[in-house]
Amino acid sequence: MDEVIVYFLEDTELAEYEAVSKGYRNDVYVSVSNTLYSIIVYDIVRLQQDFESELEQYGYYSIEPNLVLVKEVSKENIHLTVRALNEQKYFDNLKPVDKKVLKI
């Protein structure tokens, strides 16, 4: 089985609180079998807000690459979602990022 590790660039209680409150997290990296991927995590409320705001301002909404929706943007939900995505081979379709980003 693939070794899956989730990294948060800002791994503090304050960052966790803010992510859950804002419904958005862009500092999430996932290592699958020693290959690193970046994901952006939203909850549906934040996605709807961003969609409506950009639609009003620009007339369209361009979705973020590697966007993942979760019920709540908590570390626990992110970990559960990443495990499920890995089982579905989701990361096979993403472009890896350079490991120097995390210095691992």
Q: What do these coordinates show?
A:
The longest helix has 15 residues, at 44-58. The chain has 104 residues and is of the alpha+beta class. Strand 3, helix 2 (44-58) and strand 4 (67-70) form a beta-alpha-beta unit. The protein is built from three helices and four strands; from the N terminus they run E-H-E-E-H-E-H. The protein is globular, with a radius of gyration of 14 Å. The protein has a four-stranded mixed beta sheet. The two termini are 21 Å apart.
Task: Describe this protein with a few key phrases.
104 residues; alpha+beta; 4-stranded mixed beta sheet
Summed up, what is this model?
This protein is an alpha+beta fold and 104 residues long. Helix content is 37%, strand content 26%.
The total count of strands amounts to 4
Tell me the Rg in angstroms: 14 Å
Percent strand equals 25-35%
Q: Report the order of strands and helices.
A: EHEEHEH
Largest sheet: 4 strands, mixed
- In which order are the strands of the major sheet placed? 1-2-3-4
Topology, element by element:
Elements: E1 4-8, H1 13-22, E2 24-32, E3 35-43, H2 44-58, E4 67-70, H3 75-87
Parallel strand pairs: 3-4
Antiparallel strand pairs: 1-2, 2-3
